[in-house]
């Protein structure tokens, strides 16, 4: 029977213990810090003193892990006092810090000792490590500040993965190799879509003309779909007084993740990390009648979060990101219709960008940790049942994920599987019963009384930066024709054909086709290879025959063969692909 996620996490966390034991055996005097299971694997942080290790050391560490694994028995967890923990980990400042913190917070301290390796750990391990954690691989090394705080010491983080079987491990390693070829950071530079500057700062991407064009094509399509369903565009500033977030509840929960601004007069502001509190104030500018609802606001705008430097990753994790955000303010009896309109947008948009089937996940709150959420258990139960009903009415299969809700309400999350099998959370629809309460948002009902409204949050792409990273890797840079920055590359055979080729490019441009001309003093073969490397959908070599009206020889992306096609038929083919967004 396949392992569930909890069992997989226990397997990988156990392997992190084995990694810690091996490193401390290889380099006595080192200290292990934390070693959790993470998506697709695990990591372990180390203070190695003056020792610097590289990925060339990973095979030796793996060999030590395999040698030690034969001596490991079950993980046996025992409770200890803070005095015992202090004695056991007197040599390890990281374990001591955690033990003191846990004890001060009233938490039980537990240790385990498989294979003679004593560690401070709350549990969650493999039942039979000698047999179960054999199929592992160490992957990479990175730096990580202790507890994510750049004021603390930089530790050495070793990443690895572990699976129940060798076949699953091999499949994952093959997927990993393919993902490296598709890495959006590499392709983004090669295709000239975006760049980063040390002078601007990490996590702050700069978009080139080609990358900006793609962003606008995507966002314009989302707006086209929204406008057809009654949305109106709004605009908001990029900063706010902290009082807005105090009222919304964001300040108490996320103030450490905000960029703070103090004015000359001493007022405290923040760069906006999300748009919904601002949008509540657009709704709150007047008292609305029930006849005026729904109010549908759409706003594509940049947001900012003070992410830790070590957590930044290309476009996937940045400090400045753009949300294609929308909020609907409506009555409770309008929620179903508004949800389904957004769902229609998602079902239309995603096939056009290459994802033909999305999974649906209902992201719910965790009742055992209710302090993380706004509102009451009764409100949450009602809201979560309403989104279940919507998913059932839509006729889709769905999974439920406890603990994945936003702090103000449950979500319908849409999951896309990319071309190499990785799953990504993309679009989301969120039902919010808490912000209307906190901001006292109402409408006047039929009898003249005030009625509390509800709020729906809708992001089709979410962070456009993160979404771009997903589709770059999904398509390996070979985007659908409608989305390709250059759709046709014209290659003049020689200098004498260059002027007429540029005139031909003007004709294609007037037909709404994005075209480029490579008239460099190079061989035709070299120019064709460059265009192929840029993933251009169509390459046309222009010589005497093409300019005299004969059929064109068109090289189609992904093939070596050339297709014979008349100019008129070629233009019609591309126009249809643009119109149909294929």
UniProtKB/TrEMBL annotation:
Q: Which InterPro entries match?
A: aa-tRNA-synt_IIb, aa-tRNA-synth_II, aa-tRNA-synth_II/BPL/LPL, Anticodon-bd, Anticodon-bd_dom_sf, Thr-tRNA-ligase_IIa, Thr/Ala-tRNA-synth_IIc_edit, ThrRS_anticodon
Where the record annotates domain Aminoacyl-transfer RNA synthetases class-II family profile, the positions are 211-480
Which cofactors does this protein require? Zn(2+)
List locations, semicolon-separated. Answer: Cytoplasm
Residues recorded as binding Zn(2+), renumbered to this chain, are 276, 327, 457
Describe how the cofactor binds: Binds 1 zinc ion per subunit.
Presence of keyword NADP: no
What Gene Ontology molecular-function terms does this entry list?
ATP binding; metal ion binding; threonine-tRNA ligase activity; tRNA binding
Q: Which GO terms describe its biological process?
A: threonyl-tRNA aminoacylation
Leader sequence range is none
Q: What is its EC number?
A: 6.1.1.3
Q: Which key words are in the record?
A: Aminoacyl-tRNA synthetase, ATP-binding, Cytoplasm, Ligase, Metal-binding, Nucleotide-binding, Protein biosynthesis, RNA-binding, tRNA-binding, Zinc
Root EC class: ligase
Q: Name one Pfam family in it.
A: tRNA-synt_2b
Q: Which domain of life does the protein's organism represent?
A: Bacteria
- What's a single GO CC term here? cytoplasm
Q: Which reactions does this protein catalyse?
A: tRNA(Thr) + L-threonine + ATP = L-threonyl-tRNA(Thr) + AMP + diphosphate + H(+)
**NCBIfam families (alphabetical):** thrS
Assembly = Homodimer.
Family, according to the entry, reads as follows: Belongs to the class-II aminoacyl-tRNA synthetase family.
Protein's UniProt name = Threonine--tRNA ligase
Species name for this entry? Candidatus Magasanikbacteria bacterium GW2011_GWA2_56_11
């Amino acid at each position: 029977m396949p392992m569930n996620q909890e069992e997989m996490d226990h397997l990988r966390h156990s392997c992190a213990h084995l990694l810690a034991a091996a490193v401390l055996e290889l380099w006595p005097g080192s200290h292990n810090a934390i070693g959790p299971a993470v998506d697709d694997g695990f990591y372990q942080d180390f203070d190695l003193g003056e020792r610097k290790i590289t990925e060339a050391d990973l095979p030796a560490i793996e060999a030590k892990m395999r040698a030690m694994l034969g001596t490991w028995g079950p993980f046996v967890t025992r409770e200890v006092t803070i005095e015992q923990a202090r004695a056991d980990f007197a040599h390890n400042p990281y374990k001591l810090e955690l033990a003191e913190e846990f004890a001060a917070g009233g938490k039980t301290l537990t240790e385990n000792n498989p294979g003679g390796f004593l560690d401070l750990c709350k549990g969650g391990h493999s039942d039979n490590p000698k047999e179960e954690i054999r199929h592992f691989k160490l992957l990479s090394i990175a730096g990580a500040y202790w507890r994510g705080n750049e004021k603390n010491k930089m530790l050495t983080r070793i990443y690895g993965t572990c699976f129940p079987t060798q076949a699953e491990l091999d499949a994952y390693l093959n997927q990993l190799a393919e993902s490296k070829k598709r890495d959006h950071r590499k392709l983004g530079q090669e295709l000239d879509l975006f760049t980063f500057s040390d002078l601007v700062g990490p996590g702050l991407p700069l978009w080139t003309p080609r990358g900006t064009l793609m962003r606008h094509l995507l966002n314009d399509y989302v707006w086209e779909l929204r406008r057809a369903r009654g949305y109106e565009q709004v605009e908001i500033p990029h900063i706010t007084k902290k009082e807005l977030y105090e009222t919304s509840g964001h300040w108490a929960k996320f103030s450490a993740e905000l960029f703070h601004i103090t004015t000359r007069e001493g007022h405290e502001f923040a760069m906006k990390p999300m748009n919904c509190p601002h949008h509540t104030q657009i709704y709150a500018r007047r008292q609305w009648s029930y006849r005026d609802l729904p109010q549908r606001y759409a706003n594509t705008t940049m947001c900012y979060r003070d992410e830790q430097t070590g957590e930044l990753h290309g476009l996937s994790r940045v400090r400045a990101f753009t949300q294609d955000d929308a909020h609907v303010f409506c009555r409770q009896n309008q929620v179903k219709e508004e949800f389904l309109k957004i769902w229609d947008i998602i079902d239309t948009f995603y096939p056009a960008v290459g994802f033909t089937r999305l999974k649906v996940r209902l992201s719910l709150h965790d009742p055992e940790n209710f302090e993380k959420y706004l509102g009451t258990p009764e409100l949450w139960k009602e809201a979560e049942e309403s989104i279940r009903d919507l998913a059932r009415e839509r006729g889709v299969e769905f999974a439920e994920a406890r603990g994945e809700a936003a702090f103000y309400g449950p979500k319908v999350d849409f999951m896309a599987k990319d071309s190499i099998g990785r799953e990504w959370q993309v679009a989301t629809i969120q039902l919010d019963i808490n912000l209307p309460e906190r901001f006292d948002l109402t409408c006047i009902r039929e009898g003249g009384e005030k009625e509390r409204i509800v709020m729906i949050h809708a992001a089709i792409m979410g962070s456009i930066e993160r979404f771009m990273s997903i589709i770059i890797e999904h398509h390996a840079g070979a985007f659908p024709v409608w989305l390709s920055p250059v759709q046709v590359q014209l290659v003049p055979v020689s200098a004498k054909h260059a002027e007429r080729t540029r005139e031909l490019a003007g004709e294609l441009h007037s037909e709404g086709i994005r075209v480029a001309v490579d008239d460099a003093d190079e061989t035709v073969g070299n120019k064709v290879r460059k265009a192929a490397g840029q993933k251009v959908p169509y390459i046309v070599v222009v010589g005497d025959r093409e300019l005299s009206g004969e059929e064109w020889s068109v090289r189609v992306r992904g093939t070596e063969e050339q297709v014979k096609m008349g100019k008129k038929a070629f233009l019609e083919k591309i126009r249809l692909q643009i119109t149909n967004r294929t």
